[in-house]
Amino acid sequence: MKVEELSTAELATRAAGPGLDFEAGPFRILLKTRLRGMVDVFARLYAGFPLQEREGIHDFHVELIDPAPLRRRFRPQSHFLLDGQAPFEPYPLDHAFPLFEWGLNYAIATRSHSWCLLHSAVVEKDGRALLLPALPGSGKSTLCAALMQRGWRLLSDEFGILDPDSGLLQPMPRPIPLKNRSIDVMRAFAPEGVFGPRFPRTRKGDVVHLAPTSESVARQHQPARPGWVLFPRYRAGAATRITPVAPSQAFVRLSNNAFNYQLGGETAFRALAALIRRVSCHDLVYGDLEDVVARIEDLTR
Amino acid sequence: MNGADLLLAVLRRPERLGDLDEPAWDWLIPVARAQRLLARFEPLTRSLGLWEGLPERARRNIRGSLVPVEYQQRQVLREWRAVQKALAESGVPLVLLKGAAYLRAGLPPGRGRMLSDLDLLAPRAALPEVERILAAGGWRSEIEDAYDQRYYREWMHELPPLRHQTRTVEVDIHHNLLPLTGRYRVPADALWEAVQTLSSGERVLAPADMLLHCAAHLLVSDELRGGLRDLFDLHQLYLHFTAQENDFAASLEKRARTLGLGAPLWHALSAAELLFETPVAPRLLDPKVLQVPGPAWRRNALQALFLAVLRPREPGEAPPAFRQWLLYVRSHWIRMPPGLLVRHLARKGWRRRQRERKSP
Question: Is A61 on the interface with B (CB under 8 A)?
Answer without folding.
Answer: yes
